[in-house]
Amino acid sequence: MNFDWMLKRTDKDHFDLIEIWKNDRLVLLLRLIDLETWLNRGNLLVSEIDDFKDKQTLLRSTGIASVTLWEDIWFNKKEIVQSRLNAITGISERIPGRVTQARKLDKPTAKDFLDKNHLQGSVNSKIRYGLFLPKRYFRVLSTGYQLDSGIEELLVAVATFSHPRTFERNGGLYRSYELIRFANLRNTTVVGGFDKLLRAFTDEYKPGDIMTYADLEWSDGASYSRLGFDEISDKDPVQFWLDPTLNVRYTDNRRPENDKLIEVYNAGSRKFVKTIH
To answer: What is the DSSP code string of the chain?
Structure first.
């Protein structure tokens, strides 16, 4: 990926650590969890992961990004991973959000986009919005950007939301929604796009609040904080059962009969809430 990088290992961490540098400054620490080491280290890995989480928290507090990347995610979602790592280091096609148009999407369009551009793919959602770049603004794209010249617009970002949970509060109805997914088109970053999608949703549905989760393997949710979300709590790591042949993860309640499955778990998530009305 043409990074200026350095490979390291420490006594407390048996996985590869990749330091990625830009303009003589460390911008990203990438921790690679390969399945062979995961299997061979056994129970010692639990304490090692806790040690790394402390280091990760410290790095992020100083503005250095830190990502934990599992081998199965790399092989299954390589293009999306590369796109996200590039975006973290500032290597991305930047599209001004002000020249895009926000409108609702049908379910198949949102599903297709998220399956191609979000690490966790698509899930069922009630409300779906997209940002479209009209053809008259294709000029903001760099000369080398690969684009189908026959299209009239380009879908560049998608956000999906849940059904509302409705409560009675202070004599009125209070509606709480969950932001389920957000993704930019691979290898692009819509500057201000996330905020524009939130405003489009908020203007139409008038939520009392919007709740979402940050994946702690990829970030501490700082981008949510910048948009007025409040950090609420951390959720414990989630256990998965991984088929190392197919690189497919299963939750415990969907675990197939297979004695070759590997027990893995993520780094947990952080809950954020933005109060609107």
So the answer is: ---EEEEEEETTEEEEEEEEEETTEEEEEEEEE-HHHHHHHTTHHHHHHHHHHHHHHHHHHTT-EEEEEEHHHHHHSHHHHHHHHHHHTT-SEEEEGGGSEEEE--HHHHHHHHHHH-TT-----SEEEEEEEEGGGGGGS-TT----TT-SEEEEEEEEE-PPEEEEETTEEEEEEEEEEEEEPTTEEEETHHHHHHHHHHHHH--SEEEEEEETTT--SHHHHHTTPEEEEEEPPPEEEEETTTTEEE-GGG--S-TT-EEEE---EEEEEEE--
The pair of structure tokens assigned to 118 is: 């979000």
Q: pTM score, two decimals?
A: 0.92
What average pLDDT does this structure show over 206-210? 95
For residue range 224-241, what is the model confidence (pLDDT) as tens digits? Answer: 999 999 999 999 888 899
